[in-house]
Design a protein that fits this description.
The structure holds 2 protein chains of 2 kinds. Chain A is mainly α. Chain A has helices at 5-18, 23-35, 37-45, 59-71, 77-85, 89-98, 101-115, 139-159, 179-183, 212-217, 227-238, 258-267, 269-282, 311-315, 333-342, 344-359, 368-380, 385-393, 396-399, 406-410, 420-431, 481-502, 523-538, 547-563, 566-579, 581-584, and strands at residues 54-56, 173-175, 195-197, 324-325, 328-329, 400-403, 436-438, 449-451. In chain A, the strands form 4 sheets. Chain A has a two-stranded antiparallel ribbon. A two-stranded antiparallel sheet of chain A has the order 2-3. A two-stranded antiparallel sheet of chain A has the order 4-5. The two termini of chain A are 36 Å apart. Chain B has 2 domains: 5-173 and 244-424, Alkaline Phosphatase, subunit A (3-Layer(aba) Sandwich); 175-181 and 191-239. In chain B, 33% of the residues lie in helices and 14% in strands. Chain B has 11 helices and 12 strands. In chain B, a hairpin with a 2-residue loop joins strand 2 and strand 3. The longest helix of chain B is centred in the C-terminal third of the chain and has 22 residues, at 291-312. Chain B is globular and about 70 Å long. Classes of the chains: A mainly alpha, B alpha/beta. The interface between A and B is large, with 99 and 100 residues.
Chain lengths: 586, 425
């Protein structure tokens, strides 16, 4: 038994840094160290042991956390029973979750945040109008389809167990009836809603790298010369952000002279340290339309198209450098995709992003040793994103509950807060209630149905703690007045909906109130119903005479006395349960 | 008092004269003691500082607009007849205005520059100075940090921040009357009465305390429970201020609407800090940089409205006006290149300026300095004057200086950065 794994890995990395290696070489060498027999073998023989005072979740609590993180819903009662019987069932159930459609949605959400692809749909860089062949759709629907296309491709790669590298190498794209019209892609109306199709205009097909929305979301100008696009790709897919580096202005450069500036980004060491890598990367995008305001689109397919060969060099007269990827030669977007797929930073970045998303810690605070171990497993799995996800959710970092010493508790994130998207899925699953509004009658059809918890433009995604892909780029995991109002209103709406609907249908068709009706007064029945509610809403199996059920029973009785109305009493109870810390956190 | 659109957009500044008088008198009698409220106005997109704040006429190195460097209202600005609202603002309020030039942002990327100017750090995970001020001086308020529009960095102080949303949709959560119509026809959500609400609240609180006893006794878990419980109370108190918010949405997040909310939020004790947002990124003039003329006119017209209102409304302390107790800070995340590009626009530049107004500070000042290439020059941090032996003003020094001016121990948040002491005067 040698050094603990984390220390050994830290030494591997420390040696590289101490030798002052450049970033690409450092990454390559780190990858070699981690991929090679030395560090990798330690991974297999020396599992990471949690600090002694850190207490793990119970298997049932772990199941709840995994279910919420992967699907946004609570586990079923049957799943809770399986885990209660044997904690070994947890890993099987996680596999089932990973195969569910709900996990596909989670993959879209994770990548929407990392790629920042779903900004407010009415404004630039979105804002595609519902005109021409799309006049029958509302504006929100048109834009959501366009913004979803690259995310749907990623979802399909993950859900079909294809190598995750295909998100940048796939020889096709995905389109629905709307995005196919916007971009002029072939589409079979008799096929599935989202179906594989190809760009046939000469740009090639390289997963999300050839998706037109990427180039409308991230635009450029002649003077910017695609640098923003290059950095967006680097930041999102490599976790390497050129613009996070400090810029020290070299006052010896005559910034008044464009030629001097052009020369400086090549030859001046202060400028070239970034530009020697950034500018050749930017050159991969030299054939993509620099600037486009979707609101101005007169009809579809878009004209001018997004792909215009020579638009920067010939059309705009921009002197682009020879394209290359951190010194490696390449010409096309397909070349770029393969170079990214082959870069160890790509798999490491994926590991960091998955860890960050599911553990709700900032990307910059993901422990390197944890990310490196995840990266290794990810590579070994053939870049299987489900395997990567499973490694995250089965880890001790994910299942940590709390610590028993103040020092360790200080930095331990023992609760996960339900994102607005997760809260919406949970409430839908529990109650059948979707918090939506139809603004069609008020906007002459321009705006249609809005999914309020999931929409940042008109809804509550940001108010409730989520992101908007533009200005609010990280989730808020602490509660404040705004998130509290969101949760409270959502709880009231959902409670009202499910009680009214449950009490109006037969028992089997009910969502939550399967044991009672408006006349039920028998305490045993009421307690059984309440215990069921605890299991469904909190994922906690409790006995009918437990303190938890006592408290909820007391609430029901008090509310019943208060209003003299059983339905209102149940609405009061369910509003309390949906507002409870245990419902909003997992 | 509600601000009319006409007042905001069409009036000259004659109607603000009484406000000016008030501010002059009260500012003289009440030196800054810290703890002021804060209004942070974000000029989003990157302003061209050579239009008004940092005159650079007659240089081959800089494409400056038409105009003349001159003193207006006792402060050096760049003036031109095409910018009458701007001129009128300084004539009326130069007395309470400080221009800060030569702030190095060290980046040319909007999100990066924004987080640096807001937080004084390179990380969006840190709190911005408006959040810090709200936490230090107003954490007990219902919405200590009220962020209108999208941009704000509450960082670890997220529990004191309230975002209103792109179209101020927070208002639909404040009152069932304002709620979105449900898609389900005929459905009316549950609206608990006061007694039922009290039962719900008691249940939720008791449940959270049980959670604390098992998993939330220490550290980060404990703080999460604290935040949760505090948010319940804050949310309820925020509902009590629903009249401060517009009943209708504002898709454009009209500045008039924002100013009205900000003034009422401070006046009625809703918030300690309020963040406003100007022009939705319209300042990012890569094409047609001359749009900066109109943008400056809109900005200074809005500022005139704001300062006039602050100068005419009573402060909390007897004899004070709100302007004495409110610091207004106007920042843009970056400047613009010295020279025009091929599309007659200007691109991103890692040196910017700021405005600091009111708060009991002396005005008629220009502190910080730039050279003929629009590069930052070394200055004396105590006076703000150029000094060859001085230091370059970094974004972190600026943020620390604002915190110091607000009576916050800047070292607690930005320990590596010397505050730009000259801001406090």
């Amino acid at each position: 038994m040698g050094l603990p794994t984390s220390i050994a890995r830290g030494m591997c990395l420390g040696i590289c840094i101490a030798k002052g290696l450049t970033m690409p070489r450092l990454v390559a060498l780190t990858a070699i160290l981690l991929l090679g027999s030395g560090c990798a073998n330690e991974t297999e023989s020396d599992p990471v042991v949690p600090p002694s005072s850190v207490v793990d979740l119970t298997p049932e609590q772990h199941l709840v956390r995994a279910s919420m993180a992967l699907r946004g819903t609570r586990p079923s009662l049957e799943e809770l029973d399986r885990v209660a019987e044997s904690s070994d069932a947890l890993t099987e159930i996680v596999d089932e979750y990973l195969a569910s459609d709900a996990f596909g949605r989670t993959m879209r959400r994770l990548h929407s945040e990392s790629l920042m692809l779903e900004p407010d749909w009415l404004y630039y860089p979105a804002g595609f109008p519902n005109v021409g062949a799309l006049a029958d759709y509302d504006v929100a629907t048109v834009n959501q389809s366009v913004m979803q296309a690259p995310l749907r491709l990623i979802e399909s790669v993950v859900m079909e167990d294809r190598a995750y590298t295909e998100i940048v190498t796939a020889d096709h794209t995905l389109a629905d009836p709307i995005s196919s019209v916007v971009w002029g892609l072939a589409y079979d109306p008799s096929g599935p809603e989202w179906q594989a199709t190809r760009y046939e205009d000469g740009r090639g097909n390289a997963g999300i790298l050839t998706d037109s929305w990427m180039y409308v979301r991230y635009q450029s100008t002649a003077s910017n010369a695609n640098r923003q696009r290059a950095n967006a790709i680097s930041r999102s897919l490599l976790c390497y952000d050129f613009l996070s580096r400090d810029v020290e202005l070299d006052t010896s450069v005559d910034v008044a002279d464009p030629n001097a500036v052009q020369a400086a980004v090549v030859a001046n060491s202060a400028c070239a340290s970034c530009h020697q890598a950034l500018d050749p990367l930017a050159s991969f995008f030299k054939d993509m339309l620099p600037l486009f305001v979707p609101q101005d689109a007169p009809g579809y397919p878009l004209d001018p198209p997004v792909f215009i060969p020579g638009v920067f060099e010939i059309g705009l007269g921009v002197e682009m450098r020879q394209s290359s990827y951190f010194g490696l030669a390449g010409e096309s977007l397909e070349d770029l995709g393969q170079l990214i797929a082959d870069d160890p930073r790509f798999s490491l970045c994926a590991a960091q992003r998955f860890y960050s998303y599911f553990n709700q810690v900032p990307l910059s605070e993901v422990p390197f040793e944890a990310a490196a171990a995840l990266q290794q497993g990810f590579i070994d799995s053939g870049f299987n994103a489900k395997a990567l996800t499973k490694a995250v959710v089965m880890s001790h970092d994910f299942s940590a509950s709390h610590a028993e010493t103040a020092e360790e508790a200080e930095g331990l994130n023992g609760f996960r807060r339900a994102r607005p998207d997760e809260a919406a899925s949970m409430i839908d699953d529990l109650t059948g209630f979707r918090w939506e509004t139809d603004l069609g009658p008020y906007t002459e059809g321009m705006i249609g149905v809005i999914d309020l918890p999931r929409d940042s433009m008109l809804g509550y995604r940001v108010v409730g703690g989520g992101t908007d892909s533009m200005f609010v780029t990280v989730d808020t995991f602490t509660d404040n007045a705004g998130t509290s109002l969101f949760v409270r209103s959502f709880a009231e709406q959902a409670a009202g909906y499910v009680v009214d609907s449950d009490l109006s249908v037969a028992g089997d068709a009910r969502k939550l109130l399967g044991r009672v009706d408006a006349q039920t007064s028998d305490e045993a029945t009421l307690r059984s119903q309440i215990a069921d509610l605890h299991a469904r809403v909190f994922g906690t199996v409790v006995s009918v005479d437990s303190p938890e059920v006592d408290a909820t029973f007391d609430l029901y009785q008090a509310a019943r006395v208060q209003s003299g109305d059983a339905a209102r009493a149940w609405k009061t109870v369910l509003t309390a349960l949906f507002s409870d810390f245990r419902a909003g956190n997992y | 008092m509600s601000i009319s659109r006409r007042n905001l957009l069409l009036s000259g500044l004659g109607s603000f004269a009484s406000g000016l008088l008030g501010s002059q008198q009260s500012a003289a009698g009440n030196p800054p003691v810290g703890g002021q409220n804060l209004i942070l106005l974000f000029v989003q997109g990157g302003w061209d500082t050579t239009y008004v704040l940092d005159p650079k006429p007659g240089l081959d190195t800089i494409d400056a607009p038409a105009g003349l460097a001159k003193k207006v209202g006792g402060i050096d600005i760049f003036d031109h007849e095409t910018r009458p609202q701007t001129r009128a603002f300084f004539e009326a309020f130069g007395e309470v205005t400080t221009i800060v030039n030569g702030i190095q942002v060290q980046s040319i990327n909007h999100p990066d520059c924004t987080k640096r100017m807001f937080t004084g750090t390179a990380s969006e995970m840190n709190a911005d100075f408006a959040a810090i001020a709200a936490y230090e001086h107003g954490r007990e308020l219902p919405a200590p940090y009220l962020a209108l529009g999208a941009t704000a960095f509450p960082g670890p102080l997220g529990s004191i921040a309230v975002r209103t949303g792109t179209v101020t949709q927070l208002t639909t959560l404040l009152d069932p009357v304002r709620a979105y119509p449900p898609k389900q026809e005929g459905f009316v959500g549950f609206q608990p009465d006061a007694d039922e609400s009290a039962l719900i609240e008691a249940y939720v609180r008791a449940s959270a305390e049980r959670e604390r006893a098992t998993r939330g006794a220490l550290g980060a878990n404990s703080r999460r429970l604290d935040d949760f419980l505090a948010s319940r109370e804050r949310g309820e108190r925020l509902k009590g201020f629903k009249s401060a918010f517009p009943a209708d949405f504002s898709f454009a997040l009209d500045m008039q609407v924002q100013l009205d909310i900000a003034l009422r939020a401070l006046e009625e004790g809703l918030s300690h800090s309020v963040k406003l947002e100007s022009a939705f990124g319209g300042w990012d003039t890569h094409q047609g940089n001359d749009q900066q003329t109109a943008l400056n006119e809109q900005l200074f017209s809005s500022l005139a409205t704001l300062i006039s209102e602050l100068s005419s409304r009573a402060g909390k302390k007897a004899g004070n006006k709100m302007i004495d107790e409110t610091l207004v800070v106007v920042v843009s995340e970056m400047g613009r290149t010295p020279k025009l590009n091929q599309e007659l626009g200007k691109d991103h530049w890692p040196v910017t300026s700021a405005l600091v107004l009111g708060g009991g500070l002396p005005g008629q000042r220009v502190i910080g300095s730039t050279g003929e290439g629009l590069e930052a020059l070394p200055i004396d941090f105590a006076t703000g004057a150029g000094s060859k032996s001085g230091e370059l003003l970094q974004y972190s020094n600026f943020a620390a200086g604002v915190l110091e001016t607000l009576g916050v121990d800047a070292a607690s948040y930005l320990s590596q950065s010397e505050p730009f002491h000259a801001i406090a005067g």
